[in-house]
Write a structure and sequence with these properties.
Layout (H helix, E strand, L loop, with lengths): L1 E3 H15 L6 H4 L3 H22 L9 E2 L5 E2 L5 E7 L4 E9 L15 H5 L15 E7 L2 E10 L6 E8 L3 E2 L2 E3 L5 H15 L3 H14 L7
Antiparallel strand pairs: 1-10, 2-8, 3-4, 4-7, 5-8, 6-7, 9-10
Helix pairs in contact: 1-3, 1-5, 3-5, 5-6
Length: 219
């Protein structure tokens, strides 16, 4: 959902005012309103990126579609393939090929031990339509999604492919996951207080942001 950045800035200021006592805000009070607004606005994108990268899947929006062209590693429709990801890719929401039993919401990386198994010459070790695997890796062409595997030949196609884009401000607006907007506001306040050396204020804002986004230390 699209929001005015000025509204996010104002809500972050309110969060700071309402959740800490006046003595803790003394450092922030020494900054004029215009300067404080600029500082808060400079933290909005970073806050959105951190929260949307780490929040649980059920708090994300449906995201954007991707994947018009499939590059097959061998015969089209059989085995593994890859899809060039958009330049603004931040996080996978879901991916499913047409012959898979279910969609995959979480991707592995090159450093995951399971990734090496996908290159095994033994078919039973690699991902299958009954137990599919998705990996996000860096290739010479850029960031790609690799999938394992398909066995329906020319009939194989992408059923679902959705992602969360890197948040960006355009025309003083920013597109955010609706359920995560409150957490992003508090994380913006956290980054603001932290940048101004207000450690206690920052700690209070961070705790609230993590609670709202249901982010734990194990996330």
């Amino acid at each position: 959902m699209e929001y005015n950045v000025s509204d996010i800035v104002q809500e972050a200021k309110v969060a700071l005012d309402e959740n800490v006592d006046s003595s803790a805000l003394s450092g922030l009070g020494d900054v004029d309103t215009l300067k404080l607004n600029e500082i808060i606005e400079s933290k909005v994108v970073d806050a959105a990126m951190v929260i949307e990268q780490n929040a649980p899947l059920f708090l994300l929006d449906s995201g954007r579609a991707f994947g018009e062209v499939i590059g097959w590693d061998s015969q089209p429709g059989y085995g593994s393939g890859h899809i060039h990801l958009p330049d603004d890719f931040l996080r996978l929401v879901t991916f499913q090929m047409s012959d898979w039993d279910y969609p995959v919401p979480v991707a592995i990386t090159e450093t995951d031990p399971a990734y090496q198994q996908q290159r095994s010459r033994f078919a039973g070790v690699r991902g299958t339509p009954q137990k599919p695997v998705v990996a996000i890796v860096q290739q010479p062409i850029g960031l790609v999604l690799e999938f394992y595997s398909c066995y329906t030949g020319d009939e194989a196609y992408i059923k679902f492919a959705r992602y969360i884009p890197v948040p960006r401000i355009r025309n003083n607006k920013i597109d955010l996951c609706e359920k995560l907007k409150p957490a992003i506001v508090y994380y913006t306040a956290y980054l603001t207080a932290l940048s101004m050396g207000e450690g206690d204020v920052a700690s209070a804002m961070l705790a609230t942001a993590k609670e709202l986004a249901e982010i734990t230390d194990n996330t």
